[in-house]
Amino acid sequence: MSTDKNSPWIPLNFLALPEEKSNLKNSRVVLLPVPYDSTTSYRTGARDGPMAILRASYNLEDYDHELDFDVSQVGIHTTPFLEPHMGGPRQMVERIEETVHTLATPDKIVGLLGGEHTISVGAVKAMATRYPDLSVLYLDAHGDLRDQYMDTPWSHATVARRLQEICPLVQIGVRSISQEERDFIRQKGTPTFFWDSDDPELPVLDRLLPLLTQEVYISIDLDVLDPSIMAAVGTTEPGGMSWSQITWLIRKVAERRRIVGFDVTELSPGEGPTACSYTAAKLVYKLIVYSTLWQRKDSAESVLRSSALPQG
Ligand SMILES: [Mn+2]
Q: Which residues contact 177 (CB under 8 A, 6 or more apart)?
């Protein structure tokens, strides 16, 4: 949190940033809170995720020790909460698509705070029209590749199936799928990196990176993390990623590709300890730090170039 000694007000935005670091115009990152959990089938409560992430973000330092960088300098704008459409998930997906399309101008990275995972479909539809060379890196314990679930094609269990209809999709972290999904993966060749081993080191990255295009959207269901550090999700699954594994993976992708958008979904704060909301907030924070790497590289290089110009 940034503290302003002249004001007793805590701004309701990510990191509680002052106006000059959080207005839309100056911000490279736009966060869209989507408090929606209409199709969640096991444990509900993801509608409370966005507020829990924002509240937890007040306790994060603006300064990122790992990359020696004050993340608030990039400008982080948090929009008002997007109202759920009660007409049904298809209408909600359309509402998200329209909203993200408006926000995703070329100079902005858009991040969604979920909410159930279904919100990714609207976001990726919008991003794919903005970035024709888009691909999705999908982190989830589950395949989410069913064509329909509980009589709807627009559900948290069908998200990846809908996304691979829009643009190339690469899944990692999967450790629970149905036979229908296994057959789909085998027949369609959907790239899926199962999380059967604790070792995500270079061989995984070497095989994963060539499958991603230059512009990447990262979609995260927090159940990709191990329940020992992330119990506050709708559907826990043992044997998940550790904190260092997920941050290592995202950083390596960010160093080699341009991350143009992301979402962090399925936080159900009532289902786990408060630490989970903080972990979710810190993951959003790391996504901001890593996804703005290339922009900072550009500005660092332009500073170097301008300082190298002959004087006078
Ligand atoms: Mn999942």
A: 142, 143, 145, 185
Q: Residue 232's closest CA among 184, 281, 185, 191?
A: 281
Question: Is the bond preceding 115 in cis, omega lying within 30 degrees of 0?
Answer: yes
Q: Write out the CATH class of domain 25-294.
A: alpha beta
Quote the pLDDT of residue 158: 94
CA of 270 to the centre of ligand 1 (A): 17
Instruction: Report whether pLDDT(58) > 50.
Output: yes
Distance CA 212, CA 216 (A): 7
230 C-alpha to center of ligand 1: Å? 12
pLDDT(310) > 50: no
Q: pTM for the whole thing?
A: 0.92
How far does residue 176's CA lie from ligand 1's centre (Å)? Answer: 9
pLDDT at 194: 92
Q: How far is the CA of 55 from the centre of ligand 1 (A)?
A: 24
Closest by alpha carbon to 156, among 309, 265, 22, 290?
A: 265
Q: Which of 110, 74, 144 is nearest to 298 (CA)?
A: 74
Task: Give residue limits of the domains in the chain.
Answer: 25-294
